[in-house]
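Hi there. Long-time user, first ticket. I'm pasting a complex I've been working with (about 239 residues overall). I'd like to know whether the download I got is complete or cut off, because the file seemed smaller than I expected. Thanks.
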Amino acid sequence: MNLGNVVVLTGAGISAESGLRTFRDNDGLWEEHRVEEVATPYAWARDPGLVWRFYQERRRQLGSVVPNPAHYALVDLARISEGFTLVTQNVDDLHERAGSKGAIHMHGQLRMLRCEGSGISEERMGADDLTDGFAECRCCEVGSRMRPDIVWFYEQPMHMEEIYRAIGECSVFIVVGSSGHVYPAADLVTIARRRGARTVLVNLEEPMNVGEFDEVHLGPAGDVLPGLVLDWSRHGDQK
Ligand code: NAD
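Hi, the file is complete. Here it is re-exported in full:
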């Protein structure tokens, strides 16, 4: 059964069952830190050591977590969709490790570091890159310090043109595991709906923007999403 063009937006909730903590489930804390302490350019300017150690811990953590059934369900969903675009707010690599191709990381990726001199990003996951000492680039004549290749609060998300283009062409827009607090990601469902897409939510609880969804499935994504995808593979999205 063909679903047409599908765009999926995932948030921290899809990786929760893999053992990666979200923001909103911990009273606004991410791994015991307030976002202002570790996820803004001001934090990097004020205390780069703290920010670096925080992200190095998150980067090392990737080695000890694995994708869960929700990540794998999206690989299956891609197979039964005419066109498929996966957009993620997540900075982990669990979609790639489940087998998803071409995921658009609008908030950057933990696996990458960005040279502060040239702005060039590269994958740096060797043992030497994962220590608490700052990493240096390989692109400048005299090595520059590297920063996490993460879109912090107050910075511009990546690949927005590509994301808006895909949304403009989709017939189904699905959000999995996102609180609807972080913009512009939280607005994408509204845009998709105005363009005529059917909007579907899979989340543990009702998010801020629940009113924007035509279909709401509450529960852990790892339980809910595989069943939905199986259903769609048998019957399409016509209910
Ligand atoms: P969020 O933390 O604001 O919200 C997570 C949402 O997921 C909540 O609504 C919660 O109810 C839901 N949820 C929790 N467990 C779930 C489960 N098992 N199944 C389904 N839903 C579940 O996340 P957000 O909206 O993605 O925004 C947070 C920002 O923090 C993102 O921009 C992201 O860059 C960053 N972040 C990323 C990661 C990651 O890469 N894994 C983890 C934490 C934070």
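A couple of notes from our side: The chain is about 30% helix and 20% strand. The two ends are 13 Å apart (CA to CA).
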